[in-house]
Design goal:
Layout lengths: L2 E4 L5 H9 L3 E4 L5 H7 L3 E6 L6 H6 L5 E4 L9 H6 L4 E3 L5 H16 L2 H9 L18 E5 L3 H14 L2 E5 L5 H6 L3 E2 L3 H7 L2 E4 L13 H6 L4 E5 L8 H9 L3 E6 L19 E3 L8 H19 L22
Parallel strand pairs: 1-2, 1-3, 3-4, 4-5, 6-7, 6-9, 7-8, 9-10, 10-11, 11-12
Helix pairs in contact: 1-12, 5-7
């Protein structure tokens, strides 16, 4: 029976699909690449989440025919080497859209309404906290969406429908007409948009061009008292500069669901930055999202193994020259 190695756990619905297709599904002993490299050799398929798959593990996987990426971000995967050896990588760019958009909005609200601080006040018996007048509405505020992808679009839809927010989007690769169709105004100047926005939400993939795209200059270009939310990739933001912008009081608050190193080291400056609301990469971890993503991922892995072109490939040019292609 052919093996599918799960580098990290996926929802049982995806496992059931794989097993029903005749695959032996096995969980890796650990998600570290040294362990994976030792255990992946007999696999024809592997599925990873944010652990990715590096070159050494791919070199050990002599019979690997497809890599499934559970989610949209593929920066931990050595895509270049996979493409070089003709290894198709499938991914699930739409599975987590709703869950991540909802989490993004919840983080905006948590900062605007001081949810975390209010909870702490009650636990400390400090009911006078209600008199601080440190709470605000999102209604009518300006939201900047950085990255015009499906999650950014869905976040904008919720913000507009629920809070009548004015939405502007920055994405140099999308034209104004496409944004207008979605009820958003295109912003051509990032600095000008940051200076205008009350809330800035990041929805970008991590690439060499977007790494630390939000620098100290950008953070301090933001309107004083603005909110930053990042549910995309941790490395999009210059970390020390974010700490400075929060501790100086320039930003009202920021929320991070993603970090460059996960788990976040306990001695990281973020851990002691009070203005930062953090969550452990859970935006796409709702039951509905996990089931949807696992089944989409598993179905595409099966497609590749059975010779059908999958719907969503990271490296589509490998299809006609994929390794172990049927004659």
């Amino acid at each position: 029976m052919s093996l599918c190695l799960l580098i990290q756990p996926i929802h049982q619905s995806g496992i059931d699909l794989l097993k029903n297709a005749g695959l032996d599904v096995r969980q890796a002993s650990a998600a570290t690449m040294d362990v994976v490299a030792r255990e992946i050799e007999p696999a024809v398929a592997a599925i990873t989440r944010n652990a990715g798959l590096n070159r050494a593990a791919m070199e050990a996987a002599k019979g690997l025919r497809v890599l499934g990426n559970h989610g949209i971000g593929v920066d931990p995967v050595d895509v270049g080497y996979a493409t070089e050896i003709g290894l198709p990588i499938i991914f699930t760019p739409y599975g987590n859209v709703e869950s991540v958009a909802e989490h993004t909005v919840s983080q905006m609200l948590a900062i605007a309404k001081r949810v975390r601080e209010a909870d702490r006040a009650v636990r400390e018996g400090n009911y006078d906290y209600r008199y601080t007048r440190d709470f605000c509405e999102l209604n009518g505020r300006t939201l900047a969406i950085i990255g015009f992808g499906r999650t950014g679009i869905r976040t904008a839809e919720i913000a507009k429908a629920g809070f009548s927010m004015k939405v502007k989007a920055y994405d140099p690769y999308i034209d104004a007409a496409a944004m207008a169709e979605r009820g958003m105004e295109k912003a051509d100047d990032l600095d000008a948009l940051l200076a205008e926005a009350d809330v800035v939400s990041l929805h970008l993939q991590l690439t060499p061009e977007t790494r630390e795209m939000i620098t100290r200059k950008h953070l301090f270009a933001m309107k004083k008292g603005a909110i930053l939310v990042n549910t995309a990739r941790g490395a999009l933001v210059e970390p020390n500069a974010l700490v400075e912008a929060l501790e100086s009081g320039h930003l009202r608050g920021a929320a991070m669901d993603v970090f460059e190193t996960e788990p976040l080291p306990l001695d990281h400056p973020f851990a002691t930055t009070d203005g930062l609301v953090m969550s452990p990469h859970i935006a796409g971890a709702t039951e509905e999202c996990l089931e949807r993503t696992a089944t989409q991922c598993a179905a595409q892995v099966i497609d590749v193994l059975e010779g059908r072109r999958p719907d969503n490939m990271v490296n589509p040019d490998t299809w006609e020259r994929r390794r172990f292609k049927e004659n």
